[in-house]
Q: What sequence folds into this?
């Protein structure tokens, strides 16, 4: 009784729950009022039954090694659950074979930690969602403008019109598309066209070129803008050959036969972002018109290129000289048929320049 009274007086000063326990059984010998408020009736009870999370074997091992044993446990239930910091240590002043159990309420600290952890997880989740949204917006913008233009728009908020003297332009459309559109079911036609354009996009990207836009069955891609390089025309011609090869292989396995015409021209080009609410990157200039006229010069699955383009191809491509040709709205213009690459598949006869 004297020990219990002493524990009660001490706890009133320290706001601490105190108990004395037998380390052999971990049954409570005596306790103060604060401890009983948290743990309940201690009469004949063992600590592991009073305090959820108390591990008798670990406490025994710690005391045997001359160390204190500390653990956080929970008492109560539901909204009344409290977290206690329990420390068990030998208590020589109270006699041999007993241990002093101290309990402190750490519920406010534990709740603050849980709140901070919740806020941290929420912040991480918001950051991930923001990054995903940023990537989605970037992907959408890169679908309508070259990466260099996107980077300028991201950095400065505006895009300056750019002129280059020797960019290359590819214009592609499909033979008989109007008749196909009239005779085909709309959703099936659009689905096929989407599959084909997606494949052309991958080819264009593979050769470091840029798809600018599609208009109906028309497909426009460029090389050399906004960054200009010595191999731009070569890369765009390689892309054109792969486009034709892709359609040939596709036609061998599909009932609808998609036959393209491709025109490629090299020369001055102006590129700019147009529109305010709906961004559209577009290219302008006589080179675009020439590529369109050369495309109209083609038969099914043919590629026509300008003289300026041919001058940049070297000996790695097979060309057919078409001489000076009449193109609508243009003076007589030297043109070539691009048959293929040296050592690769080709169409018809031809020679390298």
A:
């Amino acid at each position: 009784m004297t020990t219990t009274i002493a524990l009660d007086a001490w706890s009133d000063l320290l706001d601490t729950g105190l108990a004395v326990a037998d380390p052999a059984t971990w049954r409570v010998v005596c306790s103060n009022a604060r401890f009983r408020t948290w743990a309940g009736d201690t009469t004949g009870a063992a600590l592991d039954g009073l305090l959820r999370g108390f591990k008798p074997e670990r406490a025994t091992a710690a005391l045997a090694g001359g160390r204190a044993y500390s653990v956080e446990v929970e008492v109560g239930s539901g909204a009344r659950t409290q977290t206690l910091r329990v420390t068990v240590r030998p208590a020589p002043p109270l006699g041999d074979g007993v241990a002093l159990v101290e309990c402190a309420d750490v519920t406010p600290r534990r709740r603050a930690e849980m709140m901070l952890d919740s806020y941290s997880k929420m912040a991480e989740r918001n950051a991930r969602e923001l990054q995903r949204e940023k990537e989605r917006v970037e992907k959408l913008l890169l679908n309508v403008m070259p990466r260099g233009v996107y980077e300028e728009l991201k950095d400065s908020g505006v895009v300056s019109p750019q002129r280059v003297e020797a960019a290359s332009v590819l214009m592609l459309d499909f033979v008989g598309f109007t008749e196909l559109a009239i005779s085909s079911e709309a959703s099936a036609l659009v689905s096929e066209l989407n599959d084909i354009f997606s494949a052309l996009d991958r080819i264009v990207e593979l050769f470091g070129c840029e798809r600018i836009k599609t208009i109906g069955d028309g497909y426009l891609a460029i090389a050399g803008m906004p960054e200009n390089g010595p191999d731009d025309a070569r890369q765009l011609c390689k892309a054109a050959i792969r486009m034709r090869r892709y359609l040939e292989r596709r036609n061998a396995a599909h009932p609808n036969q998609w036959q393209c015409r491709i025109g490629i021209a090299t020369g001055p080009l102006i590129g700019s972002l147009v529109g305010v609410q709906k961004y559209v990157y577009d290219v302008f200039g006589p080179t675009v018109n020439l590529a369109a006229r050369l495309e109209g010069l083609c038969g099914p699955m043919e590629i026509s290129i300008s003289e300026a383009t041919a001058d940049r191809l070297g000996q790695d491509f097979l060309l057919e000289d078409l001489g000076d040709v009449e193109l609508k709205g243009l003076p007589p213009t030297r043109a070539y048929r691009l048959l293929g690459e040296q050592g690769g598949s080709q169409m018809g006869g031809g020679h390298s320049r």
Q: What stands out?
A: The longest helix spans residues 107-142. The mean pLDDT is 86. The chain has two domains: 2-105, 159-341.
